[in-house]
Design a protein that fits this description.
The complex is a heterotrimer of chains A (about 350), B (about 80) and C (about 250). With about 80 residues, chain B is an alpha+beta fold. Helix content of chain B is about 10%, strand content about 20%. Classes of the chains: A alpha/beta (about 350), B alpha+beta (about 80), C alpha/beta (about 250). The interface between A and C is large, with 40 and 35 residues.
Chain lengths: ~350, ~80, ~250
């Protein structure tokens, strides 16, 4: 049986990153993710990897650009304001078709906001985030176990599609302790093949160039259309979501990460009171699990979207369901975390009013 | 002392002298090599012709004087100068 | 007959699109020669910055990457740390290095990151059309200081070598010029040292090179090279600002 350990979510990310064979971390301190670089600094030293505490998030993301362009698995973690600073780099990395992993332990915003858990960077994560036409593969774990497992999945998706990948967490997931099963054999980084784009010195091959610009007329447009085809393919093939109790549901809650955990408790309360409530938890936020929602939209009357923000994913739910259903929203912006009870009350209002 | 046209080890004097070759189509006519660079002052911008890019290319006035120091090559940004010996 | 001077194999066959008399080409040629002479072309990775020399990714005959403006030292760090056998050089202009990339260069120098930085100081933003740079001289005209740089309003030029020499970290800091053959030969030696330091794993080397920008200075190429000798060198004195190799002897 695989080893099981009681761990902080933030430590589980670190172990997941190392188990995925990543040996390069660069980052800058910011609450509420400081346990990641702190623990990473110790663990990278133990495994002979690279840990750099940078002068800024801007430097961190660009160090990732260099390391990943050199063909190595590279990751950083930060929290909302720091992720904003990284957007320039992420845009260049996306424009150069290079895979990296960025973890955003989201905090309340805008501005300096606060350090409480939030989901207000949903738009930023799922719409590209920086300048230009691009998307980043975005995963939303909701347990320490998934925080351990998703780095490997994120690297595999990022490399398969040569695209940056994001993991969205929040301070609550990071600080929470849960048992984590080391569910797969760690990847030995020396067994990872050298990617076709890797900058490693041109001995025995043609020289390689990694760049995001092309000034020749029409070339950048072509390049963008090729990337568009890639995005279409990802949107078709890589949607992930988890459905619970949706088969007979009148109302389906749509929530991810911490909101999904709270919503799950609310759904149980509702079931106990006889309300037919299910939960759909998007695991990929981009690509958004449209298919699962489109299917549910044919048999479910109500959707309740629960987010720790002013209502961002709710728009994707409306698009996916083509506004066929009654879509309600319950949000807690600015670092607020909903309670199961307040979500239950919302369900009661919706379904109680309907009967 | 070598005389013009005489032989030493089977080579003519011209063949022992450095030869400057201007890649006229690469030259942008900036004139850096023509200004106080050549110790024997044998480079000018051709006054009477232009290259495909519209520049007056550099021109060697008297190759026999060339010492092969390479200064013209070193200051040429393109580089549009080659020296053979 | 044998070629004794000519285009080095460290440069591609692509003809450079720099303006006539631009200093970039001279520095490119020197680097292209060193890549071959030092036997490092096949393990080199170069940085082509944002600015006129963004096209350097087409000119250097080795692996190249084009990072965001000013981030060359950070990208270089990422490459060097993950592939220590590669020889990484960050080619940067004065807007790139001394304005937007100030933090990255200072910290790379402070970490004594084992990379080679080539800093082209031509006192102007070239690619964008001649705006004031952090290195524009007091009184010097640019498209954003049409009356001449007013130090009361626009502050003083940044002297990068002097600034970095205030740090304990860097191994080698030197300022040279490419305005005449004598100084070009000194630049060749400085760049050879800078790459040599990286090969010997000594740490951070930066060669600041005063370089002509005739187009944006509003001068002929010949006037430009004279202006460096007569004016620019007075504000930016040439010489070594740090050489740990000598200190260690």
């Amino acid at each position: 049986m695989a080893e099981k350990r009681l761990m902080y979510g933030n430590h589980a990310i670190v172990e997941g990153v190392l188990a995925a064979g990543c040996r390069f971390f660069a980052g800058y301190p910011i609450t509420p993710q400081n346990e990641i670089p702190e623990y990473m600094s110790i663990r990278m030293n133990e495994v002979g990897g690279v840990f750099i505490q940078t002068e800024s998030e801007i430097a961190a993301i660009n160090m990732l650009f260099g390391a990943a362009a050199a063909g190595k698995r590279a990751m950083t973690s930060s929290s909302s304001p720091g992720i904003s600073l990284m957007q320039e780099g992420i845009s260049y990395i996306a424009g150069a078709d290079i895979p990296v992993l960025v973890v955003n332990v989201i905090r309340g915003g805008p501005g300096l906001g606060n350090i409480a858990p939030a989901q207000s960077d949903y738009y930023q994560a799922t719409r590209g985030g920086g300048h230009g036409d691009y998307f980043t593969i975005t995963l939303a774990p909701n347990s320490a176990q998934e925080l351990f497992e998703f780095p490997k999945l994120a690297f595999e998706l990022a490399e398969k599609y040569r695209n940056p990948a994001l993991i969205l967490a929040d301070g609550l997931l990071g600080q929470m302790m849960e048992p984590v099963e080391f569910s797969y054999d760690p990847v030995d980084p020396t067994t990872l093949p050298e990617p076709s784009y890797a900058l490693s010195g041109c001995q025995g091959r043609d020289r390689r160039v990694v760049r995001s610009y092309d000034l020749k007329p029409g070339k950048l447009e072509e390049w963008n259309w090729r990337r568009h085809a890639k995005y279409q393919h990802i949107m078709e093939k890589e949607q992930r979501a988890q459905a619970a109790d949706c088969d007979d549901a009148e109302l389906v809650i749509v929530a991810y990460g911490t909101s999904a955990r709270v919503s799950s408790a609310a759904a149980r309360m509702a079931r106990e009171k006889g309300y037919k409530v299910g939960l759909l938890r998007p695991i990929t936020l981009w690509p958004f699990p449209k298919n699962a929602l489109a299917e549910l939209s044919n048999k479910v009357e109500y959707f309740l979207v629960v987010e720790m923000n002013l209502g961002q994913m709710v728009e994707d739910v409306k698009l996916a369901t083509e506004c066929k259903n009654k879509i309600h929203f319950h949000g807690r912006p600015g670092g607020g975390v909903p309670t199961p009870h307040e979500i239950y009350e919302k369900i009661e209002t919706i379904l109680g009013g309907s009967s | 002392m070598l005389q013009q046209g005489s032989l030493e080890n089977g080579l003519r004097k011209e063949e022992l002298m450095p030869q400057v070759k201007i890649l006229e189509e690469v030259c942008k006519g900036c004139g850096l090599c023509c200004d106080d660079v050549c110790p024997v002052d044998i480079l000018i911008l051709a006054p009477d012709r232009i290259n495909g890019s519209g520049y007056h290319p550099a021109e060697v006035t008297d190759n026999d004087k060339c010492t092969g120091c390479g200064y013209c090559f070193k200051i040429c940004p393109e580089p549009a100068i080659e020296i053979f010996k | 007959m044998k070629q004794i001077f000519g285009r080095p194999a460290g440069l591609t066959d692509v003809l450079q699109r720099y303006c006539p008399g631009c200093g970039h080409g001279i520095v490119h040629r020197i680097i292209g020669e060193l890549l071959v002479k030092l036997g490092i072309r096949e393990r080199a990775v170069g940085i082509a910055p944002v600015g006129c020399s963004v096209f350097a990714d087409e000119y250097f005959n080795c692996d190249m990457i084009q990072p965001p403006h000013g981030r060359g030292p950070a990208v270089s760090t990422g490459i060097k740390r993950s592939r220590p056998d590669c020889i990484v050089f960050s080619y940067q202009g004065d807007g790139d290095l001394a304005a937007i990339g100030t933090a990255e260069i200072i910290h790379a120098a402070s970490r004594n990151e084992n990379i080679t930085v080539i800093f082209i100081n031509n006192a102007i933003f070239g690619m964008t059309g001649g705006q004031m740079a952090p290195t524009t001289l007091p009184g010097m005209k640019s498209t954003t200081s049409v009356q001449g740089r007013n130090i009361k309003k626009q502050g003083y030029p940044i002297k990068v070598c002097e600034l970095l020499a205030g740090l304990d970290g860097p191994y080698y800091l030197v300022r040279t010029s490419v305005h005449d053959p004598k100084n070009i030969i000194k630049t060749e030696k400085a760049l050879k040292n800078a790459f040599g330091n990286q090969i010997a794993k000594n740490g951070f080397s930066l060669v600041e090179i005063l370089s002509m920008c005739p187009t944006n200075w509003g001068m002929t190429p010949v006037q430009s090279k004279r202006w460096i000798g007569d004016t620019m060198m007075k504000y930016f004195p040439l010489g070594e600002y740090r050489n740990r190799a000598k200190e260690e002897k």
